[in-house]
Amino acid sequence: MEHHSLWQTIFYRSLAAHEKIPASRYLQLATVDNHGHPHCRTLVFRGFNQDKNQMYLHTDNRSEKMSQLERHNSVEACWYFSETREQFRFSGHVESISDKKSISHKKSISQSEQSKTTSCSPEAQRLRLTHWQNLSDALRESYGQNYDIAKPDENFVLLILHITRVDYLRLAPLPHLRVIYHLDASENWQAKSALP
Amino acid sequence: MEHHSLWQTIFYRSLAAHEKIPASRYLQLATVDNHGHPHCRTLVFRGFNQDKNQMYLHTDNRSEKMSQLERHNSVEACWYFSETREQFRFSGHVESISDKKSISHKKSISQSEQSKTTSCSPEAQRLRLTHWQNLSDALRESYGQNYDIAKPDENFVLLILHITRVDYLRLAPLPHLRVIYHLDASENWQAKSALP
């Protein structure tokens, strides 16, 4: 068995317990707008890389969350699992992998801000292409009029949430349990219990 | 039949369609901390006043969200209804109705900030008492050691979300539908369609 951090073991168990419930793939992503106000919407979980502590999400380049993430890429994702009554709150920053043309256009507007939130490394673009190819036809069509399975639509954005903190809450069985995990400066996970 | 605004009619229909699913009473509340970072957690829906466009939620005075709300009371609540595949995003500001002693203590620290987020009007305290009395014994016990049904525990806080904007998204049946409702300066609801 591969090595999992403490919270990953719990997280995989929760995922497995809900694998037959489609709505359990939905989580809520909180962002901040340019007035400093919070926003929150439902997104579909698109995968997880346990070695890199990365969660994958998809969005459309035309969405409001994209302009919010370009200015402020610190986020929190809240995922509630109804059957086991567990909540995971994943905090970290989001890296947006979007179309190269789109990135270069935006760079001319605000280069310093943009550099925080996008990347066009070949590796990141390959990952974006893989996510694009794994989508259903209907989802690919939702990004634009003429889609090509070999090339992601310019509106298709892969979001990589780099997780640095996990706030875990278990509401059942009693007593409630809350543990906060954070990645320390040496990239090791530390855990401490907290008041539920 | 009572008069409902456009979005309230849809909202009541969604509530009715999910009334037998306990997990459908859960929504996610997004707030901002004093570093400007977003946070998001699951709360239980505790009622709605259609005439005042108020949503009710409960929290514990010791929670992190309380200190966040005292500094920044603009929030967004995201509520996803799994059976009908609808999402409501409720934006507005939160008024916190907490224990009078607690309020006066905090006022000495930061009077100007505090005044935005709390109220101790007799009407608000009566509403808080009603909410307290409607809780189960187990929930009342969760706020403190020695609870009195006639008097809310000092840690029990009633949150009133004053809704001024509703972002409604319907994912089924196709085509997707998104309508944004906002309360205008004359306190009338205006609707406009948006890109899903």
UniProtKB/TrEMBL annotation, chains A, B:
Region annotation (Disordered) ranges: 101-120
Segments forming domain Pyridoxamine 5'-phosphate oxidase Alr4036 family FMN-binding: 6-97
InterPro entries: Pyridox_Oxase_Alr4036_FMN-bd, Split_barrel_FMN-bd
Low complexity: bias regions: 109-119
Superkingdom to which the source organism belongs: Bacteria
Record-given protein name: Pyridoxamine 5'-phosphate oxidase family protein
